């Protein structure tokens, strides 16, 4: 029995495309978003009612052009943004609305920014074809030039892994590059895309990264072994990618649709589509808005999706029915009796057994019981 997500609401506040969304890694009621309206909004989320709602709490107006990216530090205290005005802006989420520092060095639009796992380093990528490494005092410590991209650097991300600390970048030269964080030297070139690359995302454990772009393909790469694993077909331009924090899922903004893949069996779990007739005005629309950004909530139950109609839409997991709960209980009992450890979050039973064959056998048993 596959899991389904439903459209629960929308967040209004931006007056331009929603270019990026970041959920707080610490505070479940905090969300931050960037837009082509040149602003960043800090959202206050409310789950006290029957549906999740949100309102703009504060806005940051520190940029003079489209804001292309925004991320939050792992402690939830700081926000970092990049813009077409060539600047990176660093501000506190607790005193949002005030620019703390500006990072000035790029000569063209800043397309992507990221925090390291320990929040001590910042990386930025730009249309000037350069990747820059900064400290939080806005001092540029290193500019990657050797073996860097030959076209726009569209995305940069840190791996959260302490055992394999790397920077992953991708660009309009169709290449995903993996850099050693300590030396800023190139480790691996991942080649395979047939068009420019928009997003790259790294899995929560730092073992995988996924890339997507113009060719409509989501490509999975092994960061530890430096190799291509497999390709998933999106069939339209991929604008954003996000790994689920608690499921073996990859989520993609594919044109106007959000696709969710189960990476274990490489199947589509769900496709989130908007009803064109009732998107905004209630009247028939010529075409649906494009999905431009994605972010999962901390608990993995809510997906925030940004669109070209200036809205953030909130998709949530359907609560499990009594029948599903009963099947889950039976599944867990079966797994425990077989000596296989697991934990449960709503309708998801996560297997902890390291033996892959036993996991496959257990999953088959769960499917027979109707809980997977």
Automatic annotation (TrEMBL):
Molecular function (Gene Ontology), one example: translation regulator activity
TM helices/strands, residue ranges: none
Extent of the WD repeats: 11-53, 103-135, 146-181, 190-231
GO cellular component, one term: ribonucleoprotein complex
Pfam families per UniProt: WD40
PROSITE patterns (alphabetical): WD_REPEATS_1, WD_REPEATS_2, WD_REPEATS_REGION
Domain of life per record: Eukaryota
Keyword Repeat: yes
Keywords recorded for this protein, A-Z: Repeat, Ribonucleoprotein, Ribosomal protein, WD repeat
Family: Belongs to the WD repeat G protein beta family. Ribosomal protein RACK1 subfamily.
Protein name: Small ribosomal subunit protein RACK1
Organism: Meloidogyne enterolobii (Root-knot nematode worm)
Lineage of the organism: Eukaryota, Metazoa, Ecdysozoa, Nematoda, Chromadorea
